[in-house]
Structure formats: structure tokens, C-alpha cells
Fold:
Amino acid sequence: MKDKIVSLADKLIRVKGFNAFSYKDIADPLSVKNAAVHYHFPSKADLGIAVVMGEMQRFQHNTRLWRQLPEDEQLAHLFDVFRRHCHAGNVCLMGSLAPDYETLTPPMQEKINEMAEAIVEWVTAVLENGRKNKRLHFKGAAGDRALLVISNLQSSLLLARVMGTDTFDRISRQLLEDLRS
Structure:
């Protein structure tokens, strides 16, 4: 039950936003009472932290799988994760939680910060290694470029909601092409 609650909360955060859903939105589809959700997650922040930690586990699992690939292919796999979210009508978790950030509890903010830092560090390392191995080409510091890549991926999911999924595909294709040339 706990995994189902976290999975549904993840979907609701990505579609509606953290502050826009209630435990009733989780309890009803699972055919349980709100108390059952509260049993596993006494506060909504506890649930939010579980969602963020689940996302971090998936990210770490994926990046371990991609480790042996050339750097441009590692980035392509990251882009594919975002693409799947796009085609499912979701935004990325960090992009969904950012607008609510100031309303979240300090422990939840801390987990979001950890997630953001881990993603930026990974993209930075991939970019640095890719430039060293002549698989990726860009000007400036890899950390700065990583922020540009991540912000482009996040914003392209938002644009795709308004302009259609092709928007994400066009942006991500151009972004990767620019890094490869």
C-alpha cells in the first residue's frame, strides 16, 4: 500500500502540483480511507519526502546503468526520461515542486536541494568527461552548461503542456545536437 500511495502522490505532484492535491485524492482511487494514507504518512511533508527520495533512487539507478555509455548517449538517456514524462503529460518532479518551494517544510526543502544538487553534479560530470573525450562540445564551464541543460529540459516540459509534445522533442533534439557539434 505504501508504494502505491507514493506512486500516486508522485503522479499528482507532477500533474497538479504538491499544494493542489489532498490525501482524499490519493485515498479515493486506492479505495481506502484518508486515515490509511495518514497511517503511512502522518504529514503531507512526509509523503513529499518519500516521493523525492523515490525519484532520487530511480535517478541513481539509471545513472549507474548509463555509466559505461559514451557521454552523449548518457545525456540522450536522461533526455529520454524527460521525454517519457512529457508524453505522459507530466512535468519533472523538481520543476513541479519549485513553485511551491517556499511553502514546503524545511526537511522537504532539504531533500529537494539534495535532489537538485545530485542532478546538477551528475550532468556537470558527464559534460566535463564528454568534453575531455571529445564527445561533447560547448563553451564555458561545465557546471554552468549543466544548469542550462537542466533548465532547458524543465522548461521544455512546461512549454510542451501548452504547445504540444512536439515542442519538447524539438528542444531536446536541438539541445543534444548543439552539444554534439
